[in-house]
Design the sequence.
């Protein structure tokens, strides 16, 4: 990827992705998946994961600063070991997935994770019962680590687990912020080794930081001023349509 090769439309869409990342870290988690899909449509699917990772780390910084006091560290410590195992598994799988198959795989993965969120919303009793099992933390953490390494797509998995644990709203956002900040930093050397993070991807991220900050500010402002249920329903619908396009290649 060369920055000079990006068209004005691609720059605009990258800025939208950066703003979505900022808003996602402020409580509108569904926007993270939207940004993932849009970035994979703007750039080659595999290359987009490295660019998005550095954008997400920038958004994590804003989220940690805003919600650091609300994190449940017992939850974070419980989830990190399996997440690290999942990251290693995802790193091992990444170069073994053919380029031609990566975009459909990414689309299918997003659809599967979106389905998990829909199940959680339709049958909250199921997630509540699962939360009582001690092995769920390892399952959620491992799946989260692998999916975030492959596609930065762990948001739905972790949301499902944290919602099942019935964390208060601010604790949910604060715990997610610290968990993903640690996990995303851990992914950096693996992504560099795979060639996903480059000089140009870092320069693109630096250029997009104002959009990340704007998204984070708007997310905090909107959080208490919008019908969250309707908003997330629209985001899920958009994500399904966009992921379907990825799935078809």
Sequence:
């Amino acid at each position: 990827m060369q920055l000079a090769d990006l068209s004005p439309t691609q720059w605009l869409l990258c800025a939208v992705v950066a703003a979505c990342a900022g808003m996602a870290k402020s409580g509108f988690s569904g926007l993270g998946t939207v940004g993932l899909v849009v970035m994979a449509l703007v750039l080659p699917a595999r290359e987009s994961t490295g660019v998005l990772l550095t954008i997400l780390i920038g958004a994590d910084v804003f989220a940690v600063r805003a919600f650091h006091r609300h994190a449940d560290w017992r939850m974070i410590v419980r989830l990190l070991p399996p997440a690290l195992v999942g990251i290693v598994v995802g790193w091992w799988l990444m170069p073994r997935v053919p380029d031609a198959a990566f975009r459909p795989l990414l689309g299918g993965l997003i659809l599967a994770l979106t389905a998990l969120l829909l199940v959680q919303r339709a049958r909250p009793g199921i997630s509540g019962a699962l939360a009582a099992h001690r092995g769920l933390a390892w399952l959620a953490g491992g799946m989260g680590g692998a999916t975030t390494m492959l596609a930065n797509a762990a948001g739905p998995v972790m949301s499902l687990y944290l919602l099942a644990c019935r964390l208060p709203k601010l604790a949910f956002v604060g715990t997610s912020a610290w968990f993903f900040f640690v996990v995303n930093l851990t992914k950096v050397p693996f992504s560099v080794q795979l060639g996903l993070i480059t000089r140009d991807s870092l320069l693109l991220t630096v250029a997009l930081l104002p959009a990340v900050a704007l998204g984070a500010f708007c997310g905090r402002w909107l959080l208490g001023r919008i019908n969250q249920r309707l908003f997330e329903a629209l985001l899920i619908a958009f994500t399904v349509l966009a992921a379907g396009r990825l799935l078809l290649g």
DSSP finds eleven helices and no strands in the chain.
